[in-house]
Fold:
Amino acid sequence: MRLIRKLKALFVTKVPELKEFEERLHYIFSHPYYLEKAITHRSVQNHSEGNYERLEFLGDAVIDQAVSNYLFKKYPQSDEGTLTKKRASLVNRGFLAMLGQNLGVMDVLRIEQGVNINDPKVAMNISADVYEAVVGAIFLDGGIKEASSFIKRTLCLSEHLAHEDQNYKGQLIEYCHKKNLPAPNFTITKSHGPEHEKTFIIKVAINQENTWVGIGSTKKSAEQDGAQRAINFLLGS
Structure:
């Protein structure tokens, strides 16, 4: 099976639009198979390369590692709370969506017509997903060095565009750290709706007495919603 997958990866022919997309990424895939998968939405049921969900999961982890390393080196005097807040502002959905939109991921996206990509919230979530998936694809295709280089030139060098004050999850983590409270715990309690338009309900808990509920179309947006409610309560807003 692995041999078949490798041979298949080598002989995927790139269409012109993907070559143009690679130019925007400043990265040429040795195995176009990964790129094809990174731009395929889960609504496309019969696509031979599958969809981007697994690559999104991988890319999310690679981004966290690369951004943590970048911030650790750039801010040697910053404490854990400050670094955590900065990292959270760089990996939140809104910022990743902006990066994806800047790369024009929606122009090459493979998606069924039934998904309303004219809805700004849907487009934002997909743009963030595809950015993470592209990172995962580059990691598998070229390794951690190439993936980290891509993250640095697209994400880290745009650090000044991130809005830390809007990152409620980061604010909540920092608040708990400063107040010597337990770190907030984010747990999915329920999800419903079709695969491409799910709604997630998250419970945010600092301890058994202090819990809040967050709702969103992605796990991360639900976490941000719950964290915002917690922050507003704790700060008396």
Q: What stands out?
A: Confidence is low (pLDDT under 50) at residues 1-12. The first strand starts at residue 185 and ends at 192.
